[in-house]
Amino acid sequence: MTDAEPLARIAAALERISPPPPPAADPMAHPAYVWREGVLVATRAFRPLALDLLTGIEAQKAQVLANSRRLADRLPAHDVLLWGARGTGKSSLVKSAVGALQAEGKPIALIEVAPDALSTLPHLFDLIAPLERAFALFVDDLGFEEGSAGPRTLRSLLEGGAEARPDNARLHVTANRRHIVSREHGEAERAVNARDVMDDKLALADRFGLSVGFHNVDQPTYVAMVEAYAAQLGLPFDAADAIAWATGRGARSGRVAWHYVVELAGREGKQV
Q1: Structural contact between residues 210 and 176, judged by C-beta atoms closer than 8 angstroms
Q2: What's the number of domains the chain is made of?
Q3: Transmembrane stretches, by residue range (predicted)?
Q4: Which has the higher per-residue pLDDT, 156 or 105?
């Protein structure tokens, strides 16, 4: 055994424990990326749903698409907070709006950013600020625990200072609650006026130029969602069966509608 062999084995073991970061992708070449460990990584497949398939959220679609179009055209555009009930199409709408604009030939891409990576965004801003392309920075299912530094970081990114996002990038954040921060009150909060606490939390949401609410889906809207999916995919449609599927899951939402359609496609032996 040569002296180099033990060193080679140690180096290989260390690489398995802590592999090197993935190679950086060309930020002008792909429709969507993931911001991972300080590196832009191209997504393996970006297949957003067609906007027409997102049923029951017409007003929300119009708002988000118009704002994304302005971003792609390098016109003034807002950071967007999409908040409300689970499974109502918040995340799908962000991706579908970007996909629709790309189909029109607009220079825009999506970058997914993990909620715990907000503090690394200034580095991403440095990478994309000089580019002739717009970027929708997608932060999905954001929520902060009490005492977290996250709200302060997000305020800085939205409002200003030296670390503010460049003109060709806007945040698109989804959350189940409009005020984003956990509802639980700690001892320190109980010592001050509850209204002041809530006003402080809402102040974070108010820093988004566009706040879009999503609400629980009623039965007619749910059935319309399933019918739209089935028509697009050439699947048989049975409203009673679709309702029974939702009843068995104790919920009606766009997500439940899509899960039912996947089940239906599987029964029919068709791809989705």
Answers
A1: no
A2: 2
A3: none
A4: 105
Structural domain including 226 reads 219-268
Does pTM top 0.85 for this prediction? no
Q: Which of 263, 213, 225, 265 is nearest to 80 (CA)?
A: 213
Question: CB of 100 within 8 A of CB of 61?
Answer: no
2 occurs within a structural domain: no
CB 213 within 8 A of CB 120: no
What is the signed CA dihedral for 40, 45, 48, 50, rounded to 10 degrees?
A: 140
Could you tell me if 95 and 230 lie in one domain?
no
State the DSSP code for 88: S
Of 100, 102, 254, 75, the closest CA to residue 168 belongs to 75
Q: How far apart are CA 185 and CA 249, in angstroms?
A: 32
Cα Rg of the chain (Å, integer): 22
CB 81 within 8 A of CB 139: no
The per-residue pLDDT of the chain, averaged, comes to: 84
What is the DSSP track for 241-261?
Answer: HHHHHHHHHT--SHHHHHHHH
- On the question of pLDDT at 37 being above 60, the answer is yes
* Exposure class string for 77-98: b at 16+ Cβ within 10 A, else e: bbbbbbbbbebbbbbbbbbbbb
